[in-house]
Design brief:
alpha+beta, SH3 type barrels, 6-stranded antiparallel sheet, 2 helices, globular
Length: 122
């Protein structure tokens, strides 16, 4: 098993939409998630997109400022990104292809929650 990823860490995962470059995702679960019978850790993730022009106007997305969304001392995101709450998956630790690259701060994790509130309650 690989390292255990923590909630808020930004990782790369195999693109669930196509066999192209990996996608950036935020780990939503932590080590309290139970192991499965095969002994592999599973993580609930939400994808990020940099396609601001395509999705920023959507009422479910929430924008993360690349510089302001990470914990102090962590590297920024490569660019401003949007949380895609409709694009959440459960992946095995073996499907995480890279990272963690950075870790979101508490306010950014609240933004993730707001994206789900927008999707589920509005």
């Amino acid at each position: 098993m690989s390292d255990i990823y923590q909630r808020g860490e930004v990782v790369s995962v195999a693109n669930p939409y196509a066999e192209t470059k990996p996608r950036s995702a935020i780990i939503l679960t932590d080590d309290r998630r139970p192991l499965h019978d095969d002994g592999q850790m599973r993580y609930t993730i939400v994808l990020l997109t940099g396609a601001l022009e395509e999705f920023e106007a959507h009422d479910w997305t929430v924008k993360l400022d690349a510089q302001q969304c990470v914990e102090p001392g962590q590297p920024p995101l490569r660019k401003d990104s949007l949380i895609e709450p409709w694009a959440h998956y459960v992946v095995r630790d073996t499907q995480i292809t890279g990272g963690p690259f950075t870790k979101l701060n508490t306010e950014a994790l609240k933004d993730v929650s707001r994206a789900y509130v927008r999707m589920l309650l509005k």
